[in-house]
Amino acid sequence: MAIPWSEADFGRAEKAAAFRVIRSGWLTQGKETELFEKELARYLGVDYAVVTNSGTSALIASLLSHGIGPGDEVIVPTYTFIATVNSVLAIGAKPILADSHRDYFDITPDTCERLITKRTRAIMPVDVMGMPIDVVGFRKLCRKYKLALIEDGAQAIGAEYKGRKIGSWGHSTIFSFHMAKVVTAVEGGCVVTNNKRVADGVRMIRNHGRLEFYQPRKHGTEYNFEGFGLNFRINDVLSAIGRVQLAKVNRALAHRKRLVAFYKKELANLFEFQKIPEYVTVHANMIFAILCPKGRRDYINQKLFDAGVQTRITWPCVHRQKWHRLYFGNVSLPSAEEISDRILSIPIGNKISLDQARRVVKVLRQSLL
Ligand SMILES: Cc1ncc(COP(=O)(O)O)c(C=O)c1O
Predict the structure, then answer these.
(1) Which CATH number does the domain housing residue 303 bear?
(2) Is the CB of 155 inside a 6 Å radius of any atom of ligand 1?
(3) Rounded CA gap, 100 and 79, in Å?
(4) Atom of ligand 1 nearest to the CA of 83
(5) Would you state the pLDDT for residue 211?
(6) What is the total count of domains within the chain?
(7) Is the CB of residue 293 less than 8 Å from the CB of residue 341?
(8) Which atom of ligand 1 is closest in space to residue 286's alpha carbon?
(9) Could you tell me if 156 and 266 lie in one domain?
(10) Residue 127 Cβ contacting ligand 1 at under 6 Å
(11) Please, which pLDDT band fits residue 217 given cuts at 50, 70 and 90?
C-alpha cells in the first residue's frame, strides 16, 4: 500500500463537530469561530487570535493591518512556501529576498539586517518545517529599526522557543490549518498578537471592513463598513473541526516527535537533516526532510516513488519559480539554493504510523546501494 506524504488524524469527533454545526443552521463564521479563537488564544497564551480562511489570508491581513502597502519593502526568505512571498506581492509591497542559514534553513537577524533600507517596513521570517526562528534576535532587530515583525508560523503551531510558545511573544504571528498541518481545520488560518489595533484591523479586513463579529439573525443589518476589507472569513463547520483538532495538539506533537526520532536514528550517517539550535525547546515537526547527497535527490525520489512512498520537494526557492524568476531577475542566494537542490520531504503526519516510517527507511537505505 502506498504511503502518503502526510495524513491527518480525522475521526468521529471531527465528523460529529461538523454535523453539529450543519444541524444548527448557522454555518458561516459565528459562535464556533469565536470559541476556536478563544481556545487558540488560551492555548498559545496570547491576547488576541483572529481566525481566517487560510494561512495566506492571515498573512495578507496582517500586512495590511500593519499599514504596509505599495512602496514598502518586506524582507522574506526565498526558501519558503510561495505564499509568504505572494502575500507581500498581493498588497503591492516589494518582497526583499533573504538567503537562508545553511544548517537551520531559516533566515537570521544578521542576514536580514544587511537588507534593511529606508523603505523597509517589516520582516516576515518563517518557522521552517515547524522549527522556531530566533524570536528574541528578530524582536531586537525589529525594535532597533522600528519594523513590524510578522512571523510566518504556518507550520509551527505548538513549537516553542526557549520554553515559550511561538505565537505567545506579542508580535503578529500567523498559523495555517491546512490539511497537512499539525492542527487542521481542513483549511484555515489565524493571526495572533497582543496588539489590539492589529487584531481589530485583521478582524475588519477579513469581513469586508466590518469589525462586528457576527449577528445571528439580526433584523435589518445595515451594510455599513468601517474600513477596507475583503472576505477572508472561515466558516463554523471548519472552526468546529479545528477546535477538535486543537484539543489533540499535544498528542499530535508527541507522535511527530517519535517519528522524527526514529527517522533520525535510522538514517543518521546516510543523510543530513535540518540542525536544531539550542533555543528550540519544541519543534512542531510539521515537515521532516532529508538532505540528499549532492546530485542524488532525483534518483532517490524516483526510488521512493517506485516503492509507493509519497514525497514532496519543499521547496524550490521562490526566485527560481517560473513567474517569480521574471519578477526577481537574476539573483543568487546560495545557501537557499543548495538546500532546495538537495531537500526531500518524507512522510510524516498525525496518522503516519511507525510501521510506515520503517518502510520508508528501508526504501531510502536501498536507494543508496
Ligand atoms: C510557510 C508557509 N506559509 C504560508 C502558508 C500558507 O498557508 P495556507 O495554505 O493555509 O494558505 C503555508 C502553507 O503551507 C506555509 O507552509
Answers:
(1) 3.90.1150.10
(2) yes
(3) 7
(4) 4
(5) 85
(6) 2
(7) no
(8) 16
(9) no
(10) no
(11) low
Residue 216 has pLDDT above 70, yes or no: no
Q: Which three cell numbers stand for residue 19?
A: 454535523
* DSSP secondary structure letter of residue 319: G
Looking at the fold, whether 243 and 285 belong to one and the same domain comes out as no
Best of 53, 56, 89 for a ligand 1 pocket test (most atoms within 8 Å of beta carbon): 56
149 φ, ψ (degrees, to nearest 5):
-110, 115
Give which of 312, 182, 232, 246 is closest to 56, Cα–Cα. Answer: 232
Question: What angle is formed at CA 271 by the lines to CA 268 and CA 277, rounded to 5 degrees?
Answer: 75
Q: Among 223, 247, 271, where does a domain finish?
A: 247
pLDDT tens column, 130-167: 999 999 999 999 999 999 999 999 999 999 999 999 99
**156/50 same-domain check:** yes
- Domain for residue 2, yes or no? no
325 with 202, same domain: the answer is no
Range of the domain at 134: 12-247
CA distance 189 to 52: 5
Strands 120-123, 172-176: pairing is unpaired
CB 91 within 8 A of CB 97: no
Portion of the chain with pLDDT greater than 70, in percent:
98
| Phi, psi of 120, rounded to the nearest 5 degrees | -65, 130
